[in-house]
Amino acid sequence: MAEFVIQGKELISKIVKEHGSGAIVYVPKQWAGEKVSVIREMEYDVKKLAKSLDREHRIVYSYYVLDLVHRGHLLQMQNAKATAGKNGISVIGILTDQAVMEKKKRPILSLDERMLLAQAIKYNDFVVAQGKYSPLPNVKNICPDVLMESSSHTKNNIDEAKQVMDKLGGKVIVTPYYPMICSTEIKKKIREG
């Protein structure tokens, strides 16, 4: 059981257990009489999430390292949610450390921290771990209607994504990359002081 103190509030992370016709989470006895909110944080298991998604609405998948949240990420997430539509579902993949290290250095923040950051952003409906730098393994499991790609990725990667999405009956939307507000530039400015 992990415990955190966030702005004077306590958060306990537990597994919800079946109970009668519903489910239950036990909290510390000293919480009796207090107002408590139960929030579904995230889903690590892509296959489990894929089975639970409402297929009547548009599903959009986008993916991030999210070691440092900036305006470019928020614009991409906002675009993904707008593409999904009012009742649509925006699923966000957060690259695992191993996935990031396929192309970049190890992230500073842990996967759990990065996934919690993503879950806290209002544009994201579901957050899943992405075990490869390529989104295609997650895409093949989730079968979204739309895959959001960045113009920072290679033409070959985008073409491959388009082929996979065509087979799934979906499409790829390529959004602009903002080089002046990327994590690399922000980290460089921090190092330079």
Question: Can you describe this structure?
Answer:
This protein has two domains: 2-31, no CATH class; 46-192, Rossmann fold (3-Layer(aba) Sandwich), CATH 3.40.50. Helices cover 34% and strands 23% of the residues. It has seven helices and nine strands. The strands form three sheets. Strands 7-6-5-8-9 form a five-stranded parallel sheet, sandwiched between helices. A hairpin with a 2-residue loop joins strand 3 and strand 4.
Shape: globular
How many distinct folded domains? 2
Helix content: 25-40%
CATH architecture of the largest domain: 3-Layer(aba) Sandwich
Number of helices: 7
Q: Runs with pLDDT <50, length 5+? A: 1-7
The largest pleated sheet is described as: 5 strands, parallel
User: In whole angstroms, how far apart are the ends?
Assistant: 38 Å
Q: How many DSSP E strands? A: 9
CATH class of the largest domain: Alpha Beta
The overall pLDDT average reads: 83
The largest beta-sheet arranges its strands as 7-6-5-8-9
Question: Structural class, please?
Answer: alpha/beta
| Topology order in helix (H) and strand (E) letters | EEEEHEHEHHEHEHEH
